[in-house]
Structure formats: structure tokens, C-alpha cells
Amino acid sequence: MLRLALRTLRYRIGGFTASFIALFMGAAIVMACGGLMETGIRDDVPPQRLAAAPLVVAGDPANLERAPVDAALAAKAAAVAGVAEVVPDVAFPVLLPGGAEATGHTWSGARLAPYAVEQGRAPRGPGEVVVGANSGIGPGGTVALRIDSRDVDYRVVGVAGAPVEAEVVFFADDEARRLYAKPGKVDLIGVLLEPGATADGVRAGLTAAVSGRDVAVLAGDERGLAEFSDTGGGGEAIITLSAVFGGLAIMVALFVVAGTLGLSVQQRHREMALLRAIGTTPGQLRGLVLGETAFVAVLATALGWPLSGRLGAWLLTRLSGAGVAPQAMAYRQGWVPVVAGVGISLLSALVAAFVAGRGAAVTRPTEALMAAGLQTRWFSVPRLVFALLCLGGGTALSVITAVVMSGPVAASTAGPTAMLWAAGIALLSPAAARVLIAVLRWPVRALSGLSGYLAVLNTGARRVRVASAITPVMLATGLATALLYLQTTQASAATDAFAESLRADAVVTGPAGGVPLEVVDEVRALPGVEAASAVVDSEAYFPDHEDGDDEITVLGVTPSGVTRTMDVDVTAGSLDDLRGDSVALPTGWAEDLGAAVGDPIRMKLGDGAVVDLEVVAVHTGSFDAALLPAGLVAAHTTGGRATQVLVKGPESALAPLTGRHPDLEVAGREEALAAGGGGEQTGAWVNYLLVGMILAYTVISLVNTLVIATGERRREFALQRLIGATHGQILRMVGVESVVISLGGIILGAIVSLVTLVPFAIALNGTFWPRGPIGIYLVVVGSAAGLTLLSTVLSTAYVLRTPPVEAAAAPA
Q: How many CA atoms are closer than 13 Å to the CA of 740, on its beta-carbon side?
């Protein structure tokens, strides 16, 4: 039967092509999502500036903040067998002329890339620098570098080049350590090996030499975590996104493949009935369908593999550009996601083929011949059971979302809710189609005359086939509406929460290094300024708590200005006492920890340092963060500066500040609110990208289904033309049919979106309606209706090109 299956494929190019496209795209998307997950798990950041150092000693990348390394560790590292030389290096932010951001390093650290002097010479004294070849600055002149909010003139004595993307400035070693301003500390220690020594062999001894310190010995791609300090743990977001959308892609792929293969098999009921009539057994018939499907699936997944790598790398680039993934992260797709993608694609194809061919295989030959011309049977007990399970699960998740969940976490159940409802309705689509056709019959006939009358008769008689066309419309509109409005609702709620939490009239921000803490005193001294507070963002843990791995957001603030600039309402104690080693806890955490004002608690800060603090206040507000003195938090962050300074007072009062510090920027309240919502908007656009990819795949299914269904009717159209119907009448008839299909799919899609969005809106903001522009819904339904009409009419016009006598005589 396999040989027969392969020989007959060439006579069904349309169905073969549709099945191939569905399987090809599904395999590529699933393998790409698998590659993204592997990328997040590996968290590989290939080194650039540290490429020549086989080993690097740096602050533990597992910490949320990067801590400097004790310079005394260099001597211990140098004493390890196999180590030829150690190269301590420092790193600090530098602004080049024109505002370009760079990093300052010791000239000896240039060996770690290695950099080579292309023009000029190395720096020899405190007033000399070597710039990177990418800077566009030539040797021989003087350049003003902004370091620590001060402009300092340096003479450019050389230009160095290396395959490194980041901008760098090299100073004489003593000058770089002075500017680093952390006596006895370095940023990292590069380790060069003796000839014949291996990184693996030396690493164990080096780890033992630096044990007991909060540092790590890094090798391979791990070295990039020391070079790009903001990449540690960056893979977590990629893992979450790839898991969510990979699961969504798998479920959509199952529907798309099952629908396409099912419709392709339905076209061949007459052929299969004849095979049964001449003695073909049910097992042979199933083998025929499975053999054809296996051949197409293997070919599609084999060709989908190369595309998946490019698609995954492209998605990672988009995610990196949006700030969701580190820019330096490398895309990795090993054999595991490829094998998983191939297995899922082949399994879904074979299961879909088995289900699709089962009906023809078990039907008696005489019954099959009678039913082949017009399919009416669709119901089965397994189908009903799975449909009820999906609808029951969807209903349960809708209730859980509305009653149990609260805040953004409700999105974790809202997404699966949409998929379960869509699955349940798709399984019962023939029954739903019968109800929809009955409801739409009279309005369609009244508005479209004879064409509508014929269209209603056709859709009623072919409701099982019509249901196959309605299902992809339902999937496209229901999933698009649900998933897109989930994002707009969540982004809108986050923006409102930020607006509620911000009491400041202006916000001061700086370059990548942040804002020096002393700027707060300068701001407070300006005429017209009522209050000012630094904000230093970080994360921390309570190691003595039973859930010691639970992170808590930490904000370093200025006690005298925090209540005037942020939504902080103190319920116990006073923020005036927030000085030294102290903390103000949010109410929920204070209750969870059993801590009251005056109690001691232990906190592990972002750089791994454990500090003993006294609770001086308990507060409520629109954010759930522990408040600590700004200086204490800054001392345990990578940059050591404030993220921003919040100001109560007119924006115009800060004009003298920007005059003294040109690198600082001042934004008014409205600008600050727009920028504050940028993170949520960025996350929303990332999700739009991934959702769009899945929906594009669904649209392919929609077009495939409609084209196949229309091509199947060539004999029907030929008979209509032989009895006098014109091209225009047939085109108008199928146009009205496409309107019925579109309306049916849109109505069912609206049910899917409503049972998803209403509970989510209740959980998120207590309303019964999602938030977002109505234009999104209009574009979704308009696109679905337009594609349905266009696909149906164009494919019908193509079929009508064949003379009616030839079309009527063609094999079914």
C-alpha cells in the first residue's frame, strides 16, 4: 500500500501541497521555539574582550548584581600550577564626545582580547588614552571624556583594534585604577596559561585557590558573563517565553495539521469507497493514508529544520532588540529541540491521518459509496469526550482566573483558557455550524437574493465541510483577539499602576552608568524644589525565611523625599529612621516574615552580601518593594549609582542641574509616565511578535482549507454551468458562502475571546471588559473575513477556467 500511496500522490498535488505547507511551517516553528528554550537554558554569552583569556576570575554571575573582586586574589591565582600570568582589569563607564557610551579599562587588560595598536602607541601616563578603532577618533588630538559626571581632557596617543563590538577606552594602569575608585578591588582577573596547560586542568586548582570568596572561575562561553555584566540570568525570560509560545505553537500545529489532513482525506472518500468495494481491508486503507502522510511529514520536517535555525536566530535578535534577551546572547539549537520538533510533527501528522482515515476505513463499502458524495457523518464518542473535557477545563480555568487569580499572574491561566475553549469548539464545530447556518439563513437570504438562497442551501447540505472552513477562522479570530487584548489589558493596567505610584513632578536620569548619589543633594538645594529622592533598583532575598529563594524588589531611596515622590503610605514606624542598616518592609512581607518595627532581619543583597538590618517602618502602596537607604543599596549594585532621581517641584527648576551635568536628562511627569510604561509596551510588542508568528501559521491553515475545499467542488460548479449558471452567479454564490463562513468563525471566535478576556479583566482590574483599542479587533475580523472571501473567490475563479465538460468528466 505504501507504493500505491506514493504513486497516487502526484495526482493530488493540491492536497499534497497543503499538507506539506502545514507540516513544514509547524515543524519549523516548534523547532525554533525549542532552540530558543535551549538558548535560555544554556545562557551562552561568547566572550569578545576576554576571548584571549582561557579562564577568568570574576564576581559570581549567579548573583543579581556584579561585585568587584579582591585584588589580592591575583597573587593566589598566579601561584596555581599551569598559570603563566594573571591580568587584573577594571571597568568603569566613560562617555565619548557626542554621547557615545564606552567602558574604561587598564591598558594591560587589552591583552585579554587581545587588542593590537593599529595607530600610535600605548598610554604611558595619566593624561593619555588609547581608543578603540570603532570610535572614529584618530590619534594625536585631545578628547574630552565624561567620567563620573566630570569632563576630563585626555590626549589620544593610539588607536587599538580587535573583533569586539563594544566601545572601549584604555588608560594607563595606575590612572584606570584611580578612576575605578575602588581601592583594593578590581573588576575581574584574566588568567593566561602556560604552554601545554589546559583550561579544564587549571580550573580545579584555581577554584580551590579562591575558595571561600564570593567569586567564580569562568571558562568557555561562561567568560562572557564576566564581560557583559548585565546578562546573568538573562536566559530565564527566554525560557519562559519559549515554553509558553512553544506550547501554543504545538497546540495550534495539531489543529492545523489535523484540519488540513482531515479535509484532504475527506476529498477522497469516493476513491476510498471504491477501494473498499473492490476488497481493500480497513487496515490496508489506513496504511495507505498513513504511508502518504508519513512521506509528506518526513519531507516537510527535513526541509523545515534549516529554516527553524534561521527563524530561531531571527526571533532571538528581535527579543534582544526589545530588551527581553541580552544583546550578547548566542542562539543555540542542538539535537534535542530538533529531535523534539521532528517527533512532535511526525506524531501529530500520523495521529491526524489515523483519525481522518478511520471513518472511511471502518465504513461498509456500500455505505461509503453512498456517503462519499456528501459527507454527513462526523459524530463519535471519543470526539464528544475530548470536546467535553476541553470545554470543562476551559470553564474551570475561566472561573479560577476570575475568582482565584489577581494581578498580572492571571495571564498564566488566561492563555490556556483560550486554547481549551478553542479546542472544544473546534471538536464540536459541525454541530456549531448547523446552529450558525440556521441563525444566519434568513438574514443572508433577505440581503443577497438568489445567490444567498443557493449559498444557504449549499452550506446547509455541506455543513461538515463548512465546519472545516469555519474552524480556522474561529482559531484565527479567537486566538488573535484573546492573546492581543491580554497584552493591551495588562500593559494598560501596568501603566495605570505606575501613574498611581509616581507622585513626582520630574525625573532625572543619566547614561548607562546611572546618576551619582550626590546629585540628590544638588537637586534639593535648587530653588523651587520641594523634595527629591534617589531610586536604586535591585533585588534581594531573605535567607532565613522558609522560602529563601523568593526574590523581593529592593529600592534604595532618600528618606526625606520618598513619601513626596512615591506612593508610600507608612502604617508603622517612620521613614525618617531609614538610615544606616535599616529597612522598611511592605505590609505583606512583614506579615509573612513575622517582623515588626524594631525587629532585626537578615537580607541577602543582589551582589551576594548578607546584611543584618533593623525594621524601622512598615508601608503600603502601589508597589511591593523593600525600602533601604540609597547608599546601602548602591554599594551592593554593579554600577553603584541611582537609576533615577525623583523630584517634587517644577521641571523648570532643574535647568541649572543640566547646565552643570550635560549627561543628565530631565523629564516631566507626562514624559516619565510614558517612559515608565515603555517596559510593559516593549514586553507587549515582543508578545505581539510571537503571537503574530503563530497566527500567521493559523492563517496559512485558513487559506489551505478554503483553497482545498473550493477545488473539491469543480464538478459541482461544472454541472451548474452546464445547466445555465454564469461565472458571475457562481462567484456571487461562493462569495455569500464565504460571508457565512466568516461570520460563523467570527462568532465562535468571539465566544473564545470573551470567556478568556472577561475573567482576566476581572482578575486584573475588577472590570468586566478588557482594555485596548477597538481597532485591533476590527483589523483581526476584517483580515479574517477578507482572507476568507479572497481565498474562496480566487480559487473558484481558477477552477472556473476549466471548460465545464472537462471539469464534469474529471475524476472526483
A: 37
For the record, the C-alpha cell of 38 comes out as 535551549
Question: Who contacts 93 (Cβ-Cβ below 8 Å, separation ≥6)?
Answer: 101, 102, 103, 104, 147, 511, 512, 513, 639
Measuring CA to CA, which residue among 151, 149, 93 is closest to residue 512?
A: 93
Residue 91 C-alpha cell reads as 571597568
Residue bearing cell 495571564: 411
In angstroms, the CA 167 to CA 177 distance is 19
Strands 55-59 and 215-219, bridge-based pairing: antiparallel
**Residue 787 to residue 203: CA distance in whole angstroms:** 60
3-state secondary structure 617-640: EEEEECCCEEEEEHHHHHCCCCCC
The cell numbers describing 308, all together, are 527553524
- Which of 64, 677, 679, 34 lies closest to 322, judged by CA? 679
Q: Kindly indicate the confidence band of residue 233, based on its pLDDT and cuts at 50, 70 and 90.
A: low
Residue 318 CB burial class (10 angstroms; 0-12, 13-18, ≥19): middle
pTM beyond 0.90: no
Longest dimension (CA), the chain: 99
CB neighbours (10 Å) of residue 446? 9
Residues 516-551: pLDDT tens digits? 898 999 999 999 999 999 999 998 989 887 765 678
Reduce the secondary structure of 368-389 to three states and give it as a string: HHHHHCCCCCCCCHHHHHHHHH
CA distances to 54, 263, 467, 474 from 748, in Å = 60, 20, 11, 6
How far is Cα 476 from Cα 706, in angstroms, rounded to an integer? 14
Rounded distance, CA 498 to CA 502, Å?
A: 6
What is d(CA 138, CA 146) in angstroms, rounded to the nearest whole number? 18
What pLDDT, in 10s, does the model give residues 32-58? Answer: 988 988 888 888 888 999 999 999 999
How far does the chain reach from its first CA to its final CA, in angstroms?
21
